[in-house]
Amino acid sequence: MSAETHQTLTADHRDGTFVDDPVPPLLARSLDAFRRDLPRLLETHYGKWVAYHGDAQVGFGKTETELYRKCLARGMKRDEFLVCSIEPEIPDDEICWSYSL
Amino acid sequence: MATLIRHLPFGEPRSCVEVAGRLVPILPFQAVVWVSIVPKGPEPYDPRTPRIPAVVDLGFNGTFAIREEQLREWAGLDPRLFPTLRRTRLRGAPTDARLANLWLHPNVPRTRDISGHAPFRLELVKGIFVLAPPERLGEGDHRPQLPLLGVYALHRANLRLIVDCGPCRLSILTAPTFPFWR
User: Fold this and answer.
1) pTM for the whole structure
2) What ranges in A1-75 are assigned the alpha helix state H?
3) How many other C-beta atoms can be found within 10 angstroms of the C-beta atom of residue A39?
4) B92 CB contacts (<8 Å, ≥6 apart)?
5) Domains of chain B
6) How does residue B62 score in pLDDT terms, banded at 50, 70 and 90?
7) Whole-angstrom Cα distance, residue B34 to residue B54?
8) Chain A interface, best mutation among B73, B80, B96, B98, by max A CB count within 10 A
9) ipTM
10) Count of Cβ atoms closer than 10 Å to residue B142 Cβ
């Protein structure tokens, strides 16, 4: 993201209101596709990273950064693709922390 | 094998760190590291990126969690810099999972101070949790007071966490290169 865009975004929110930006559609589709394929991927590519562009699987890699480089080189925008680690997901209702008030 | 965090003290009495011009209290037995939040991607570390404290929380099974207002006021970052992957609730708090990574800053051994050595990129699975304030006035705020660095972030980077509870020191190391050391 450019410095200009960053400045604009920051200026927009100086009033302290909270953000309600939508989930980019291609990102949502990418997550759905990853979850659809995850059971199979766990058997074939456990521990690797995988990239999705909507429903399409872009490829596998050893690191997330490697796949970002690949997707960006193909002209994809950062909110159009998803790079995920192939391992079981933690359900939201099982996410917790020990630090409290 | 490289040592990223070396003998970080965490047994001190209540103390403070300065973040964006304000003093933030640190409670006893909280191990606090310094991180920078950045968009995902291959870009190298930009030294102008703000650094914020985060508690290393062994009880947190996510990657990284931060209050939305801390992201804005402490890190100086608009949440929209980081695409929203999905919306959820964590412990009742409206939460956005946003695509972001961290740089973990090495410390001066035996202190909380940043050493100035090159930071380490943490690739966070599905990004970070940004926790919004309670929706209604008077509703309890159960969000953590400081940003949290979770075990999952360290796991995916294959890091080693050493907690020595006698002298109250914490270290974080990269994994050895040779498999027979593992």
Assistant:
1) 0.89
2) 3-12, 25-44, 64-73
3) 9
4) B142
5) 3-134+142-181 (2.40.70)
6) very high
7) 6
8) B80
9) 0.86
10) 14
